[in-house]
Write a structure and sequence with these properties.
The structure holds 2 protein chains of 2 kinds. By secondary structure, chain A is an all-alpha fold. Chain A has 7 helices and no strands. The longest helix of chain B has about 45 residues, at about 155-200. The chains are: A mainly alpha, B mainly alpha.
Chain lengths: ~190, ~200
C-alpha cells in the first residue's frame, strides 16, 4: 500500500470511528437533548432547528471526546451552550425562545392523575426557572437530568463548591412560594 | 417517624419521565451541510459591512480619476475613500463575528457572549469618532465643493432655502445616527452586565 492510499484509509477509518462514536453518543444522550430542546423552544420547528444545531456542535467536537472525564457532562455541556447561544440570538432578534408557557408531557407508565399533577408541577417549575439567569437555569436542568455535583461542575466550569452552594439556594427558592429573590443563583 | 419527601427528587423523576421521541442520527453529509451553512452565515454577517465599503469605494474612487474635479472636490473624495478604508479596517479588526466556544465550559461561553456584547457596545459608543467623523469630514468637503461650483453666480433665496434644508437633513442623519448608536450601545452594555451578573 502506498503512503497516500494508507493515509486515505487511515482518514476513512478515523472518520468512520468518529461517526460511530457520534451515533453512540446520540443514542445514549438523545433523550436528555430532547428534554432540553423542549424546555428551551416551544415552537416545533425552532425546537428541531435547535436539536440539529446541537447535533452538529457535538459532531464537530467528537475528536476532542477522549479528553473528557464524564461523557454525559460533556454532551450536555455542548447542548446547553448551543441552547444558550440560541437564547442570546433570539433575544437579539426579539424572537421568544421558550419564554412562554410550554406544554409538558409525562411518560405513560404512571397514572393519569399523577401525570397531570407532574405536568402542572413541571410547568410551574419551568415558569419560575425561566426568570433566572442562563447559568442558574442550566444548573437546575442538569440537576434534574440527574448529574452529580462534579459532573455539573465539569459542564458549567464552576467549582464543585460553587455548584453546591448555588444549587442549594436555587432549590430552596424553587420549592418555596416566595417571589424571586434578587440574585437566587448566588 | 415519617421520612419527609424531597420535593426536588419528585420533580427530578417527573422531568426524566417526559416522553421524548428518539433522536435520529443525521448522516455525515447532513451534518457537513449544516456546519457549512452556519459558517456561511457567519461569513455573510461579516461580509455585509464589506459590501457597503466596496460600494462607497467604487463610487468615490471613480470620482478620484475624474479630470474635471476641482482640487477641493478631489480632496473631499480622497478623504471619503481613506475614511472608508479606515472604517473597513476598523470593522475587520474589532467588529468581526467570532464563533462561540461551544465545546468549552458554559462559564467560558457566557464570558464570550458578555465580551462580545461589550465589544459591540464599545463599537457603537465610539462610532462618532471612527465612523461618523472621518466620513463626515469627507462629505462636508465634497458638499462645500459642490456649493462653490454652483455659487459662482450667487444663490437666490429659493436655492439658499434648499441648501439650508439639505444641510439640515445631512446634519439630522448624522445626529440621528449617533443618537441611535449611543442608544444601542447602552442597551448592549446593559445586556452584557446581565450576562456577567449571572456569571459572578
Amino acid at each position: 500500500m502506498t503512503l497516500p492510499s494508507a493515509l486515505a484509509v487511515a482518514v476513512d477509518d478515523a472518520r468512520e470511528g468518529a461517526d460511530a462514536r457520534f451515533a453512540g453518543l446520540i443514542e445514549r444522550h438523545g433523550p436528555a437533548i430532547s428534554r432540553l430542546c423542549s424546555y428551551r423552544e416551544r415552537n416545533e420547528q425552532a425546537r428541531l432547528d435547535l436539536r440539529q444545531d446541537i447535533l452538529v456542535a457535538i459532531w464537530e467536537a467528537v475528536p476532542r471526546l477522549a479528553e473528557v472525564r464524564s461523557e454525559r457532562a460533556w454532551v450536555l455541556r455542548i447542548a446547553h451552550n448551543v441552547a444558550a447561544t440560541h437564547v442570546e440570538r433570539a433575544a437579539r432578534g426579539k424572537r421568544a425562545a421558550g419564554i412562554e408557557h410550554t406544554e409538558v408531557e409525562i411518560a405513560d407508565p404512571i397514572s393519569a392523575e399523577k401525570r397531570a399533577e407532574d405536568r402542572l408541577r413541571l410547568e410551574a417549575l419551568f415558569g419560575r426557572l425561566r426568570t433566572l439567569d442562563l447559568l442558574s437555569q442550566q444548573l437546575v436542568l442538569l440537576h434534574l437530568e440527574g448529574l452529580d455535583g462534579a459532573e455539573i461542575a465539569e459542564a458549567t466550569g464552576l467549582t464543585a463548591t460553587n455548584v453546591t452552594t448555588r444549587l442549594s439556594r436555587i432549590r430552596k427558592w424553587l420549592v418555596t412560594n416566595e417571589d424571586a429573590p434578587k440574585e437566587p443563583g448566588r | 417517624m415519617t421520612e419527609e419527601k424531597d420535593p426536588f427528587a419528585e420533580l427530578q423523576s417527573a422531568y426524566q419521565a417526559q416522553p421524548v421521541a428518539a433522536v435520529p442520527v443525521p448522516s455525515r453529509e447532513e451534518l457537513e451541510a449544516r456546519a457549512k451553512k452556519f459558517a456561511r452565515q457567519v461569513w455573510w454577517r461579516n461580509a455585509r459591512e464589506w459590501i457597503a465599503c466596496v460600494f462607497v469605494l467604487f463610487f468615490f474612487g471613480r470620482q478620484l480619476i475624474d479630470p474635471s474635479a476641482t482640487r477641493l472636490g478631489f480632496i473631499g473624495n480622497l478623504v471619503i475613500v481613506i475614511a472608508t478604508l479606515f472604517v473597513g479596517g476598523y470593522l475587520y479588526a474589532r467588529g468581526r463575528t467570532r464563533r462561540a466556544p461551544l465545546a468549552g465550559p458554559t462559564t467560558e461561553l457566557l464570558e464570550h457572549h458578555a465580551s462580545d456584547l461589550e465589544r459591540q457596545a464599545r463599537l457603537l459608543r465610539m462610532a462618532p469618532f471612527w465612523y461618523f467623523a472621518p466620513l463626515g469630514v469627507g462629505l462636508a468637503i465634497s458638499i462645500v465643493d459642490t456649493l462653490r461650483k454652483f455659487s459662482s453666480d450667487g444663490f437666490d433665496s429659493a436655492e439658499r432655502r434648499w441648501i439650508a434644508m439639505m444641510a439640515a437633513l445631512v446634519l439630522l442623519v448624522f445626529v440621528g445616527g449617533i443618537w441611535m448608536n449611543l442608544r444601542g450601545a447602552k442597551k448592549l452594555a446593559r445586556d452584557a452586565a446581565k450576562v456577567r451578573e449571572g456569571l459572578s
